[in-house]
Design brief:
about 220 residues, alpha/beta
Length: about 220
């Protein structure tokens, strides 16, 4: 799965993965991170997620990274924000009202880009990546983040032979393998949601579970 795949999907507006409403698990479990007001939340592979606007409403600064300029432009337009845009390679920077999105490749992020991050919210990044890319994603994320940054992670589980992702299934066992040894991984919530997702039933799934994790590296 290369960059062109995602750029093409955004260009064609083939964005069934996009959630128009704020994710309910974010609202329910975010307080458990106990993040100070004003802290910066990093949202990898952010798309045009409404969750970023919600995080801003909680008095957090928001830093996103997104490959598609179409998605970034849509986020600011749909939230009626006039973004300032500037080029500082390898990213184009879009900024408005405490929300800063870096348009470019996640894997080109450096430590200095995320030096002020106080927490990470990952609803759509890990599950967007096939197995061959997930290990590199986590390795790069942990390499650039400041120490002991908590992560609120949401994943899906389903029988992998029943549907070709994305989104891809990521089990609780894989989460434990992917993240560094010694990290505290707490499963906050697990729920079967197949009946609430007819589009996944139509794709042939017999089971669909959502998992919510709180990760804290030591």
């Amino acid at each position: 799965m290369d960059k062109e795949y995602w750029l093409d999907r955004w260009q064609r507006q083939d964005t069934g993965f996009h959630q128009t409403a704020v994710n309910p698990y974010l609202c329910q479990y975010w307080p458990q991170l106990r993040l100070d007001a004003g802290s910066t939340v990093f949202v990898p592979l952010c798309g045009k997620s409404a969750d970023m606007a919600w995080l801003r409403q909680q008095n957090h600064a928001v830093l996103g990274v997104e490959l598609s300029a179409t998605a970034v432009r849509a986020f600011f337009a749909e939230n009626r924000l006039q973004a300032r845009c500037s080029d500082h390679r390898p990213f184009t920077h879009w900024q408005a009202d405490g929300i800063h999105i870096l348009c470019g490749d996640f894997f080109e992020l450096r430590k200095e880009d995320v030096a002020n991050v106080g927490a990470v919210y990952d609803r759509a990044a890990l599950i967007a990546l096939p197995p061959s890319m997930r290990k590199n994603y986590v390795r790069h994320l942990m390499k650039i983040l400041p120490p002991a940054v908590p992560i609120l992670l949401i994943t899906l589980e389903y029988p992998p032979h029943e549907m070709a992702g994305p989104p891809f299934p990521v089990t609780a066992e894989e989460v434990k393998v992917l993240y560094p040894e010694g990290a505290a991984i707490e499963l906050l919530h697990r729920q079967d949601v197949l009946t609430q997702n007819p589009k996944f039933q139509a794709r042939g799934l017999s089971r669909l579970r959502e998992n919510v994790f709180l990760l804290k590296s030591r």
